[in-house]
Amino acid sequence: MLAALTAAGAPSTPAEVRERISADLAYTTVMTTLVRLHEKGLLARERDGRAHRYWVADAAEVAAARMRQALEASDRRDAVLARFVGDLPPEDVPVLERLLRDAERRG
């Protein structure tokens, strides 16, 4: 399915993905698989009427989704963030500081 989405070159509905893959899968199977890949952060999506259009997430989207999952899964968000910040290379610290200031200004 990831190959079909990549080859499409544009966000696709489950029905469009189903048409592109050679396997004889039910629509609900394709839809469930796309939803699960989205939940894992591998796909991004947007609503299109009653359906969603999916596309392969870029590296930044995947990393952000995994960070959100780690934060949501922990009862010690401070520990997760401290570990992340502690593992940053020194050249990334000013970038993170700037992004935090920008986020604080936006509210």
From TrEMBL:
Coiled coil feature spans: none
This protein's record includes keyword Transcription regulation: yes
SUPFAM superfamilies: Winged helix' DNA-binding domain
InterPro entries: BlaI_family (IPR005650), WH-like_DNA-bd_sf (IPR036388), WH_DNA-bd_sf (IPR036390)
Keyword tags: DNA-binding, Transcription, Transcription regulation
Short name of one Pfam family: Penicillinase_R
MF annotations from Gene Ontology: DNA binding
Highest taxon of the lineage: Bacteria
GO biological process: negative regulation of DNA-templated transcription
Record protein name field: Putative transcriptional regulator
Organism lineage string: Bacteria, Bacillati, Actinomycetota, Actinomycetes, Kineosporiales
Family: Belongs to the BlaI transcriptional regulatory family.
